[in-house]
Amino acid sequence: MKKFNRLIFLFTITLGLVSCQKGFVEKNTNPYALTLLSPGILFTNAERLTHAGNWEGEQTIVQQFVNAYNLGATTGFNFNANNDNFNNPRWNADYPGPIQLIEQIISVVKNDPTHLNLYNEVRIWRAYIFMTLVDTYGDVPYSEAGKAYLKSIYYPKYDKASVIYADLYNELKTASAALSPTGDFVREDLLYGSTGNVAGQTAEWKKLGYSLLLRLGMRYSKLDPAKAQSIVQEAFAGGVMSSNNDDAFIQFNATYNNQLNNGPRTINPYYYYLAEPFVTKLKTTNDPRLKYVSGKYADPNQVLALTPDTTSANQYGFPVGYDQTSVLTLPGYRGQNGTGQNYSQLNYTVFGSATAPIFFVTNAQTQLLLAEAAFRGWITGGLTPDLYYNAGVTASMDQYSRYPNVPNPAIPSNTETSYLAQPGIVYDPAAALDQINTQYWIASFGNGAEAFANFRRSGFPTLAPNTYNNNLQGGFARRFAYPISELSANAANYQAAVASLGGPDNLTTRIFWDK
To answer: Among positive and negative, which fits the CA dihedral 280, 283, 285, 290?
Structure first.
């Protein structure tokens, strides 16, 4: 188990002391001050500070979650509003946090052979962060990002998204190949430092790197299928995740809480509900994961004090595209419940817990991508598409054993087998792309950036557009707008980026691979 309490926080006190006493050389250096920050500890914080998304962002766009209350500041993706409150969290978290830290680490260790593995692990994690930034916004600062301290670049240019992706391809390929079982062990690594030995750690990072390469390759499936196939084959040959032990995730505890769940747990919980399409899909297919993600509460504003009702028959998702007023006239409206609405919320004892893990890249996602690649005939020498599909669904169910208040196994194997044998769930070549990517949607619950990216790439699951207003012209959001602060702080580069995207800077402008 990866332990978040292995985090080490540095506190540096700078003392200025000038002495001019006879017989002593004047010095302005504190002999006890730290002169070099450990690059390993910087990496700890880069991993810890990587933005995990927020429930009102991508997971609302893909209709897994909603804020049902349209109250100005809360106006966001459920109401098709271009709201800076929800556009900027990833940008404002990643650029001054992990990206700046990673650039500092690279400047220290790049040419130091004693930090070979740290250097390449950092490169892989950097690729993960920039992939999510490109998938969220399109063109973003890349080549000049995080270099204010190192090179005095305070207004970085935006690189074209397609150019960034091309460089990420090279970074993932070369960094994954360069990891060495005879190199340095990075004990500060939150993801795989718990392996306890360099051979185990580098093996896991290689799998993460090639699994990210697989993910990147699949992004090209609409834009350039031949390129997608080539990259997927390289990733598969390199060796991707094959077990839930390979999952890249961070485990939290009572001291260091899950930041994704912080909002709905602490700020007016009665605002927040699971969305109807998500709950209905799990409920109508007898999905055993439902009880771990969904719960009904006697008072929706007291979710931390009450035990949720997790009975499947009692779960109802809040309808998409309605607010606290318009829902009152909806046929079948379930009414109010205490201070809130009579609809399902997160299960705050399991998935919504303060100590729940956050998953970034998983075996479940990887197996489902392999299922699609095998279905398309892009890989050979592996399993058949149905076996990859079954493995992906099973891995997703097994993942719940890592959550608090869940038995091990979370879902018995006979229950998993029964679920996979159901009509509509059992693998069907005629419906394979729908089945695989709908399961990817479920497996990416809590990983909004990936759920949103794969929905745009694959077109599945089949969801009805949110028609709260006409801002999306009857479709779906395809990206986040840039933070408003960029219009003034980095105006020239912002305007160039909007022009490069084909403009305007709104929610319906597509990024390069989303054709």
So the answer is: positive
